[in-house]
Amino acid sequence: MLTGADGSIIRARTAEWGPFDLETKINVVPKGFVYSAGEMPDGAEGASWTGRFGVVGISMLDHGAPADGINETGLTAGLFYLPGFTDYQEYLPELAGNSIPGDLLASYVLSNFETVDEVRAGLEGIRVVGVVDETLGFPFPLHMLVADRLGGRIVVEYIDGELTIFEAPLGVITNSPTYDWHMTNLNNYVNLSALSIPQVEAAGVTFAPLGAGSGMIGLPGDFTPPSRFVRAVAFSQTARETEGGYDTVREAFRILDNFNIPADAAEGADDDVQSEDLLFSATQVTTASDSQNLTYYYHTMYDRTVHKVDLKQIDFGAMGGEMIVFPTSGDREPTIVDMTPTN
After folding, report:
1. How many angstroms separate the CA atoms of 141 and 317, rounded?
2. How does residue 281 score in pLDDT terms, banded at 50, 70 and 90?
3. Cα 161–167–168 angle (5° rounding)?
């Protein structure tokens, strides 16, 4: 997360997935849309609710509701993979009508709430349970970062079957392990600095840094979530000052370029879900939500051109209750501007 000089609050993220194409789509969801949690583990119908707010975001694997997005009040939320640590609340058949799967958590929050404080209180009233995803063959293990236009930001996790909420002052999240572990791990990197290390003398010999960036010696560079968390904190805390609006979005996208993962580098030896989809990157989509200017930006592995959806131009109450859905990359052909001079 970055904040511009004009108060613009930007929450930007990448979405990595190495085994197969997430088939990301833009969802424009009207105010008053009726959401359904679908079948619970015993076949009973889960919760259904009518959205209070219009939402724009990205859905994955045809789940039919955004896993990342922003609503018309400036509340933003995004789901992130948390394997090995997510333990949703126990499914109770008698409470099926008040239960949702983890993959609908962001949509539930975005469609119902305006501030982080409302989210904190509202999540006490819904049960988030493990429902097997047809594509994966197991429930999506997820946690979530939520931020509002007032500066509030929290991380929501389900640990040992309990709702757990952490304050997130740094506005950074990756994947496993749990958020509090990542925050503790930062103590191992207090030496990192944007300032270069000064030269030193030993036995009459002067030693000086070999180039710029010596203050970041020790910054972890691998693709694991703990290392990416440390890098995200280091880069966001040393980012240039920005004006706000798209200037801050541009800086967020520049930072996130450091996190693009080659597809082959993200495959696990025990991945049991494979496909023949051609992936140009394990980083399939990169998004940015502007809470003050109510704009959602994104680019994908197919097309690096920045696209946007301006929520201010949408009348969410006049959409007839129907969601608008379209592919993030259209025909998946890259936008290439030919600048070749002609005689």
Report:
1. 33
2. confident
3. 110
202 belongs to a structural domain? yes
Domain around 245? 2-269+279-327
Cβ burial of 333 (10 Å; 0-12, 13-18, 19+) is exposed
Distance, in Å, from the CA atom of 184 to the CA atom of 282, rounded to the nearest integer, reads 28
**Domain at 104, CATH number:** 3.60.60.10
Query: H/E element holding 121?
Result: helix 116-122
Using the 8-state DSSP alphabet, how is residue 316 labeled? Answer: G
> Would 57 be classed as within a structural domain?
yes
In a domain, residue 334? The reply is no
pTM above 0.85, yes or no: yes
Q: What does DSSP say about strands 127-129 and 99-101: parallel, antiparallel, or unpaired? A: parallel
> Using 50, 70 and 90 to split pLDDT, how confident is the model at 145?
very high
Beta 283-290 vs 295-300: how paired, if at all? antiparallel
User: Tell me, what's the pLDDT at 135?
Assistant: 84
Q: Looking at the predicted structure, is the pLDDT value of residue 58 above 70? A: yes
Residue 311 token pair: 């929520």
Residue 14 is predicted with a pLDDT of 95
pLDDT of residue 5: 97
Domains in the chain, number:
1
| Lookup: tokens for 187 | 């103590």
Residue 209 in any domain: the answer is: yes
Q: Look at residue 18 and give its three-state secondary structure.
A: coil
The yes-or-no verdict on residue 20 having pLDDT over 90 is no
Let me know how long the chain is.
343
